[in-house]
Write a structure and sequence with these properties.
The chain folds into two domains: about 1-100 and about 260-354, Isopropylmalate Dehydrogenase; about 120-255, 3-Layer(aba) Sandwich (Isopropylmalate Dehydrogenase), CATH 3.40.718. It has twelve helices and 14 strands. The protein has helices spanning about 15-30, 45-50, 55-65, 85-100, 120-125, 165-180, 195-210, 220-230, 240-255, 295-305, 310-325, 345-350; strands at about 1-10, 35-40, 65-70, 105-110, 130-135, 145-150, 155-160, 185-190, 215-220, 235-240, 265, 270-275, 330, 340. The strands form three sheets. The protein has a ten-stranded mixed sheet, with helices on both faces. Helix 1 packs across helix 10 and helix 1 (about 15-30) packs parallel to helix 12 (about 345-350). It is globular and about 60 Å long. It starts with a strand and ends with a helix. The mean pLDDT is about 95. The structure holds nicotinamide-adenine-dinucleotide (NAD).
């Protein structure tokens, strides 16, 4: 019996996570996997109930589980809190750090039925199938932060720090992933300006010698942002540092039609965390409007990565594809002539096809 810790969190997390859990409950037994689910508190919801965004019991429960399924954290109710106490920092970043999850894998695949859902031209996005490997526990988000009073006013400092081992481990992961795909890695940096990027680029070039079958290219982050919307099909595996990856993956989400379609897996520690790439979407929370597919596809990644059940994961992806082919859409991917459904109905439609 394997244990999945379920952390719905805030906003739409409360609506989308139950849909993904029901999918797991239906699929796992078919592939001989017995799953036990336990629910925990995180984010603003945890602040309201316990006073802490990441209660010790939650972190403990994470460590004792085989996999974690997370919704999202944060929302306007907790935005007034000092940065260090806000759910996004004190819960999410602390959880990633606490579990040693240094790599975030975000596949960006365009389902053919959604080629018209993107704001980009169909001929540009059709055939998009790339993965962004984002470094998750280093760089600007984790570096020292401070403010000081200077003569001209206030001075704010955020440190961008990377060490060779941190860069090496994430790059190796990208090379290994590319070996299972089309064999191309694009390492994204800003080596023309940043010292940390120069170390990143030198390390990537050195490691590439260990992977003779992989083609490595380097790209500046500003160019990458442009190339992603100009010709996304040129990419296979993109590997980059924390902040660049944060921004580029939101941009890349539009290649798949909506951020509500983008799953992710955070790996590197003893237990992996699966979560949609989007946030808690307070603007649509509690209205049965959220797209649960990113979370359902994150559950598919869990079956594939943690439980080594590639076929089970594939069956979920196929069910999602069939629902989309049949013309069902949540609001974010709605298009003329399609049938709009709510969060719960979308989940049920996927399960019917499993
Ligand atoms: P967001 O991703 O929550 O929302 C951006 C836009 O996308 C909104 O218009 C929203 O309605 C829409 N959207 C997002 N997910 C959707 C879905 N599944 N279906 C349909 N539409 C969807 O980003 P934001 O508005 O910048 O942030 C809202 C809150 O979430 C903030 O508190 C932020 O800090 C937090 N956040 C959390 C995470 C996380 O928990 N991993 C990530 C990003 C943002």
């Amino acid at each position: 019996m394997a244990k999945v810790l379920v952390l719905p969190g805030d906003g739409i997390g409360q609506e989308i996570v139950p849909e993904a859990v029901k999918v797991l409950k239906k699929v796992a037994p078919k592939y001989g996997l017995e799953l036990e689910f336990e629910e925990g508190l995180i984010g603003g919801t945890a602040i309201d109930e316990t006073g802490k965004p990441l209660p010790e019991e939650t972190l403990e429960a994470c460590r004792e589980s085989d996999a974690i399924l997370l919704g999202a954290v944060g929302g306007p109710k907790w935005d007034h809190l000092p940065a260090k106490e806000r759910p996004e920092v004190a819960a999410l970043l602390a959880l990633r750090k606490g579990l040693g999850l240094y790599a975030n894998i975000r596949p960006c695949l365009l389902y053919p039925a959604l080629a018209d859902a993107s704001t980009l031209k169909k001929e540009v996005v059709a055939g998009t199938d790339l993965v962004v490997v984002r470094e998750l526990t280093g760089g600007l988000y984790f570096g020292e932060k401070r403010r000081e009073q200077v003569e001209e006013g206030e001075k704010a400092v955020d440190m961008l720090v990377y060490t060779t081992p941190e860069i090496e481990r994430i790059l190796r992961l990208a090379f290994e992933l590319a070996a299972k795909r089309s064999g191309k890695v694009t390492s994204v940096d800003k080596a023309n300006v940043l010292e940390s990027s120069r170390l990143w680029r030198e390390t990537a070039t050195r490691l590439a010698a260990d992977y003779p079958d992989i083609t490595l290219e380097h790209m500046y982050v500003d160019n990458c942002a442009m190339q992603l919307v100009r010709d996304p099909k040129q990419f296979d595996v993109i590997v980059t540092e924390n902040m660049f990856g944060d921004i580029l993956t939101d941009q890349a989400s539009m290649l798949s039609g909506s951020i509500g379609m983008l799953p992710s897996a955070s790996i590197g520690g003893a237990v992996a965390l699966y979560e949609p790439a989007h946030g808690s979407a307070p603007d649509i929370a509690g209205k049965n409007l959220a797209n649960p597919l990113a979370t359902i596809l994150s559950a598919a990644m869990m079956l594939e990565i943690t439980f080594d059940l590639e076929e089970a994961a594939q069956s979920i992806r196929k069910a999602v594809e069939e629902v989309l082919e049949a013309g069902y859409r949540t609001g974010d991917i709605m298009m003329p002539g399609a049938k709009q459904v709510g969060t719960d109905e979308m989940g049920a439609l996927v399960r019917e096809r499993l």
